[in-house]
Amino acid sequence: MTSTFTLQTRLAFSPHRLLFEPFPFSSSRTLTVVACSNGLLHGPSLRHGHGHGSVPEPVPNLTEQSSIDRDIFTRVFDLAALRVPAAECSELERRLRGHLLNWPRIRNVARVMGDDVDPSISKLLSRNPESYSSDEEPQLSPVLHREKLIKQFNHRGFINFRNLAKISRPKKKKKRFNERNDDSTEKIETSSVYKVELVSEEDNAEDWSSLIGEEFNGGSWRGPTRLLLLDERYAKTETHMLPGAVKALLYRENERGMNSLYELVHCRLTIFYSYWQMTELLEALLPEDIIVPSGFETIGHVAHLNLREEHLPYKKLIAQVVLDKNKPKIQTVVNKTDAIENEYRTMQLEVLAGNHSLVTTVIENCIRFQLDLATVYWNSRLATERQRLIASFTNSDVVCDVFAGVGPIAISAARKVRHVYANDLNPNAVEYLERNTVLHKLDRKIEVFNMDGRRFVGALFSSQQILPITQVVMNLPNDAAEFLDIFKGIFRNRSNDDDSCILPKIHVYGFSKAQNPEFDFHERINMALCETVREVEMHRVRLVAPGKWMLCASFNLPRAVAFGKPLIKVV
């Protein structure tokens, strides 16, 4: 249909996108909408093709089902192809590149099963079909083919001669899997992504498959050939509707009569479940009014989802698709069931798919961290921020990590700075912190404590046996600003004129929903210290939620705060 518009533009319509192609300027200004009946322009779709039958199979709306019938995602596409000699395939592919199939992850060149013959056998046959008359064409002898196959061995026996190989060696013992293992434990092979096969091909030879294997198809041999898959719009078109480059190639070879090396054939491209991307599968499985979840956090072998309330009826289905499309890296899929409100800042997780082990190993900046997601806190999205913070340290710094967790900052900093004092209230986190410290052989540079944050800071700065602390990290965004009052009067027992006293630099993290988050967080720091901190470096870490920023404030502890009167009684 057409309608008046301010700019003459042609739109190619598809179910997912609109492609705009501006015309040169003209006095007429119309809008032309062209509906494309050939499907998506950029590749295959689950909404096109057909299943095992002649009628497309609809994808059912599954709700609480965790198992997926992978056969319903098998799609078959009818294509046209050029059968050409293998030696000329590369050159013809370059010449016909604009007219060949251009689908993601699918090659536009396919082999013909049983067409490739060993070079030693091909010498016995004429490579030039013109040397034979039309009544007498070269034909590969099945006996020659069999004799060549039985001469090929490896350490397991016969290579291609499968029938004799089964006789010559004992049967392999099949591995018995536990009944609890499901289809998700199977490895996906590259050959299971798609396959190309000829729709109809004359086979005048006798059936030798039981003797020499199914790979030999007999018939006249024209040499090894390949299939150049043409674009999907040429699937069911007549020869005169093909592009000029293809017609010229066929007409030129047609003059050779029966000895033509090029042939236009019909193929069937079958695409299996393993080809489709995660978002494509979820778009087909979930109702149309539900937003498809596209991202998740990866923590070792665990995929951490944050599903919305509308996704919860389909959580098992979503988890199974995520697990299938991210193997073998992902082995467990979990979802956070509640907000983080407990004292140890651990997440309440529900295992949706895969194994139920949440003990994993995370590699961050070439450092391995062992942890248990059920008992400790970890956030992989802060890896860049941790790297930025550690880059500001020097080799002479002494770092105090008040909320260390399993040690992502403490262990990374220990490889660079002079010494690290690490503390956490969670005993499980302290256990993994000590384990990770020994794992990286840093137990001499890191001292681990299991104390409350205020007690830890007060005891550390009042001790005479520790090294002078130059950097303090307080990475607890929800409550870290409330712990700043402990620094009021931290050096009260020392002389204010003591120049040897080093005032540490504090890095404190926090959240803000204000319109000006930097100003809001700065005011909260001033209120906690009861002093105006003039020079504060503010850094926006990440947008946690719409309108909610996570920030990092870095400032040197003011002398008036360090030598002032404490606000609370130090334990």
User: In angstroms, what is the radius of gyration?
Assistant: 35 Å
Classification by helices and strands: alpha/beta
Helical stretch tally: 14
The coarse silhouette is: elongated
What's the mean pLDDT score? 77
Indicate the proportion of strand residues.
Answer: 15-25%
Question: Characteristics of this structure?
Answer:
single chain, 571 residues, alpha/beta, seven-stranded mixed β-sheet, five-stranded antiparallel β-sheet, 14 helices, elongated, disordered N terminus
Description:
This protein is an alpha/beta fold. Helices cover about 20% and strands about 25% of the residues. The chain has helices spanning about 90-95, 120, 140-150, 160-170, 210, 245-255, 280-285, 315-325, 385-390, 410-415, 425-440, 455-460, 515-530, 560; strands at about 1-5, 10-15, 20, 30-35, 75-85, 110, 155, 155-160, 195-200, 225-230, 265-270, 295-300, 300-305, 330-335, 350-355, 360-365, 365-370, 400, 420-425, 445-450, 470-475, 505-510, 535-545, 550-555. The strands form six sheets. A seven-stranded mixed sheet has the order 20-19-18-21-22-24-23, with helices on both faces. Strands 6-10-5-11-9 form a five-stranded antiparallel sheet, with no helix packed on it. β18, α10 (about 410-415) and β19 form a beta-alpha-beta unit. The protein starts with a strand and ends in a 9-residue tail after the last helix.
What's this model, at a glance?
With 571 residues, the chain is an alpha/beta fold.
